Description:
The chain is an alpha+beta fold. It contains 8 helices and 4 strands. 25% of the residues are buried.
Amino acid sequence: MSTPTTVPLAFRRLDEDTMRARAEAFLDLLRARRSVREFSDAPIPLDVVERCIEAAAQAPSGANKQPWTFVLVTDPTLKKRIREAAEEEERSFYGGRAPASWLKDLAPLGTNAHKPFLEEAPALIVVFAQRRGADKDDRHYYLSESVGIATGILIAALHHAGLATLTHTPSPMGFLAEILERPAHERAFLLLPVGYPRPDCRVPAIDRKPLDQVLVRR
């Protein structure tokens, strides 16, 4: 087995007061993050979105395969096609495919098959997971975990930059690969509208679990 090539780690150790201040500031920032379904059609700086995508692409991944593709959609015709296809799937979901328990859990959020935000938001980011590389023998590992980590970083980066998002997962999502002409070894992982909230935007009144319900100390 060959010896891996390494480089010095660029890491700056912070004093504990700075660490606590940064952790608190980041927590406060993310406490204010909410999923938005009422987007303004105001244009957004796409270079900012691209930097956030580049930040997401720094995520760790199984064997460093980086098994993700981010498709940035701003073309109105493509957004309209995506909305029409998504709403077709969602009508089937809400109209009979979803179990009653699922619909009950969704009821407080006020969601339905109507998805105008897919056209109203100035940009959509469609995250694709690469089952393998372009070469059929190029295996990818821990696919969902790797792409999930990158997607989490993307959402946090966009919020940090001052943009609102919505995690949208119409099921199934095969239409996205077809509309966006992605290769067979990629599958849609997440559809993320991005933009500014409308001035009159309202969001469901929900709470987050407190720390003592999500943290176990041993």
